[in-house]
Design goal:
The protein is an alpha+beta fold. The chain is built from six helices and four strands, in the order βααααβββαα.
Length: 192
Amino acid sequence: MKNEKTTVRLESEKQLRIFTLPLRQRILRTMRIVGRPVTTKQVADMLEIAPSSARHHILKLKEIGLVEHDHYEQINGIKADYLIASDVTVSIGTSLQDAYTAERDSASQVMLFEIADRFLATLPSRRKKAQEAPGQFLGDLIGGIAHLSTEDAEKLYNQIRDFLDSHSLPRAKDDHPWEYAVLLYETEPSEL
């Protein structure tokens, strides 16, 4: 398997603005964590926002291909639209140099900081769980320098991407959502 997942490339200012709005990021994250079809009302309840606000933002995400219709169900005589986060890879084009480079850089920074903040916020509860269940893997942060050829770096990236893509939706009852951030970039001795 080699990057078979569809990639949604956000190239226009409109697409970037739709994607990078913090509430829309929270909506997408919530839908991905739930991992099953939900209604806009369910999303609104989970995020404690107005259903009309959830609907507006979900429609915007649907417009750029990040949310899609799954099915309809009758609930108390009302036809409910069940939606799911699209199983796609999102590219904000961090390697592009264009009129939106600053917006892309800002979006990347916000996304990384938010993931790091959530990781740090979980440390106390994960330490408690580690005491209760020694030896159970509860997540980790690794960093360092690997000496790779350009081909090896691409191979590593593709292996990580393929593995994560194949696990983007729950497959079994004991699957749980794990949040991740992966950075891989070439550094230079001049960056010491």
